[in-house]
Give the backbone structure.
Amino acid sequence: MNLAGMITLVRNDLHDSDAQNYRWTDTELTRHISRAVGELSESLPLPAKAILPTTAGSRELDISGLDDRIMVAAVEYPVGDTPPNYQQFSIWGETLTILSGDLPDGSNCGIYYGAKHTLNAEESTLPVKYEDLVAGGACGYAAIELAVYAINRVNVGGTVTPGELLEWGNQKLKFFRQELKRLGRRNRVSVNALYEPYFPNISKTTDPGP
């Protein structure tokens, strides 16, 4: 589904299908959809991989070229080993530092990261199963925007009051964020099962002693 299809889906959910009397413009809905896509990307980023050259004698890599990067899940160095060598790492700004393994010699490393999803006129990276979820989030934002604007103004939008519209929008956003939290937690479990996290787990029941 491209952006036009998502706008149609959102309009249907908002019951705003009268092209002669739209309550929201395409530009407004595009902004709300973009915000919902951004929030979903934070919880469920698009899986991506980049091969970057290291610098001989340095553990630092410039990752500013990783477009729309949200997070880094794993760093493989050197690449091509079986099983793969995943290294511990830290990130500060646009610099990734490999903390474990041999000092890089200039050969390539693999960066496994999560990126922001794309949804535009030509393409979409959103999984089909999450399209309705994004539409629901966009509906929530759109409803709240119109309700806030309409408060203390004459209601000319039909029988639904601004207060009712505001409540409906808040409920849509509540469900949207609950689902993102649930899906994001499940995704983190998967990542931790594949890659050793940089920060070790600390037992809450073992006494480390003096």
